[in-house]
From TrEMBL:
Classification via Pfam families: F420_oxidored, P5CR_dimer
Taxon lineage: Bacteria, Bacillati, Actinomycetota, Actinomycetes, Streptosporangiales
Molecular function (Gene Ontology), one example: pyrroline-5-carboxylate reductase activity
Domain annotation Pyrroline-5-carboxylate reductase dimerisation: ranges: 157-261
Keyword presence, Lipid biosynthesis: no
One GO process term, biological-process aspect: L-proline biosynthetic process
Main localization of the protein described in the UniProt heading: cytoplasm
Name of this protein: Pyrroline-5-carboxylate reductase
Length: 264
């Protein structure tokens, strides 16, 4: 039995992605304290919504998707009810396996995972790192579960804050670019629906080429930049405004915020 505690944006994306890719709703328990959202989850996914202690008693794999700030209180509550063989998978940004282990029973196998919301459409990217008691079989169980909603990589835990900054928060950066490009089209007088269509398909096509061509992004960008043309003029403006530095600083800020979250 798999249980998901916290069906907010990320927990629900994982739930929906897992069910879309063939998990049986009868094998999934969800914990959601808000009655209206619990009713929505039952209606939308045909899953059982149960209290956290009940989920802990039944689950062999427990996925926790609460805000980092709420994690410690929940772990303290859950620990007495957990099955001894339960694997705990936390997707909370910044919360280290050391903190997870400290608030669970001695010897509990924990895996720290950082997924992203494209899990909802089966195109997620998740990195996982095991705690002190996570054996290969535990990491494989977590990887197998999360690979149902996209790609999974195993990384040393020291990279998890950078993972969070790159792929965890990453979808938001692309939505930010999309939003900015759409507004630019509207500013220039284009109907909003046309601008949305052009930008959405361009991002989708560019992403597919980056994934499928095996080429470095610089090579792909050079192929778009005709000599003396429009793209070179645009990229010069991006460089003049320090967009590269802004992105690097933004990603560093996300990494640093992830580190801070483990400090409570
Ligand atoms: N959003 C993202 O793209 C990603 C998020 N994450 C991580 O996922 C976690 C959740 O983030 P996100 O989904 O964005 O946040 P949300 O606020 O959308 O989700 C948190 C959920 O937890 C529920 N909750 C709070 N307390 C309890 C409890 N005691 N028992 C059960 N459920 C509870 C909340 O319910 P209610 O609303 O009723 O309070 C809410 O549905 C965070 O730790 C974040 O770092 C990781 C990767 C990507
Ligand atoms: O913004 C956040 O803190 C979470 C973690 C990664 C994506 N969303």
């Amino acid at each position: 039995m798999i249980a998901i505690i916290g069906a907010g944006k990320m927990g629900e994306a994982l739930l929906a992605g897992m069910l879309n890719t063939g998990h049986d709703p009868a094998d999934v328990l969800v914990t959601e304290p808000r009655a209206d959202h619990a009713a929505e989850l039952r209606a939308r996914y045909a899953v059982r919504v149960v209290p956290a202690a009940e989920a802990a008693r039944q689950a062999s794999t427990l996925i926790i998707a609460l805000k980092p700030q709420d994690m410690v209180a929940l772990l303290d509550d859950l620990a007495p009810a957990l099955r001894p063989d339960c694997l705990v998978v936390s997707v909370a940004a910044g919360i280290t396996t050391e903190v997870l282990e400290k608030h669970l029973n001695p010897d509990t196998a924990v895996v720290r995972a950082m997924p992203n919301t494209p899990a909802l459409v089966g195109l997620g990217m998740t990195a996982v790192a095991g705690g002190r008691h996570a054996r290969d079989e535990h990491l494989e169980r977590a990887e197998s579960l999360l690979s149902s909603v996209g790609e999974v990589v195993r990384v040393p835990e020291k990279y998890m804050d950078t993972v969070t900054a790159l792929s965890g928060s990453g979808p938001a950066y692309f939505y930010f670019i999309a939003e900015t490009m759409i507004e630019a089209g509207v500013l220039m007088g284009m109907p909003r629906a046309t601008a949305e269509k052009l930008v959405t398909q361009t991002i989708t096509g560019a992403a597919a080429m980056l994934r499928d061509s095996g080429e470095h992004p610089v090579v792909l960008r050079e192929a778009v930049s005709s000599p003396g043309g429009t793209t070179a003029a645009a990229v010069r403006e991006l460089e003049r405004h320090g967009v590269r530095t802004a992105f690097t600083d933004a990603i560093e800020a996300a990494r640093d915020r992830s580190r801070q979250l483990s400090e409570g």
